[in-house]
């Protein structure tokens, strides 16, 4: 049997996946782990400002790639933003924002000439995810501009709820 459900709420999806997990030995269950604009927007809004700027530099400024030295010159040490980026994935799974198995949108690139010394050479995003994250960043910029034009203070970082 094959069942396709589209347009369900996140709560319904989470409950359904829990039910399916109970019967995992009888079923083959796959979840949609692809990034969407909504997921990307939530991911970006959940990040602290330095990590969000880091992501914007990879997506917008670097067209999918940002050199580590360039990132360091803007955001400072990279360990803070990169830790925030990596923690956002499991936090989102736990909160039910995206399913288990969703991959990190930004990945580190190491210098293949120095395999024993793993200093980041840069950070990249796949070409499939670039338009999705560009749209999410544009959505955030539009919302921020609208809020500012109404004299509303921008929201802080952290939990987007």
Task: Report the order of strands and helices.
Answer: HHHEHHEEH
- Low-pLDDT ranges: 157-161
> What is the arithmetic mean of pLDDT?
86
Give the biggest sheet.
3 strands, antiparallel
The amount of helix comes to 40-55%
Number of helices: 6
Q: What is the structural class?
A: mainly alpha
Report the span from N to C terminus: 36 Å
Task: Give, in spatial order, the strands making up the sheet with the most strands.
Answer: 1-3-2
User: How large is the share of residues in beta strands?
Assistant: 5-15%
Q: What is the C-alpha radius of gyration, as a whole number of Å?
A: 18 Å
Could you say which overall geometry the principal axes of the C-alpha atoms support? globular
* Secondary structure: number of strands: 3
How would you describe what is shown here?
It is a single chain. The protein is mainly alpha-helical and 161 residues long. It is 50% helix and 7% strand. The chain has 6 helices and 3 strands; from the N terminus they run H-H-H-E-H-H-E-E-H. The chain has a 3-stranded antiparallel β-sheet. The longest helix is centred in the last third of the chain and has 20 residues, at 130-149. The chain is globular. The chain starts with 9 loop residues before the first helix and ends in a 12-residue tail after the last helix. Residues 157-161 have low confidence and may be disordered.
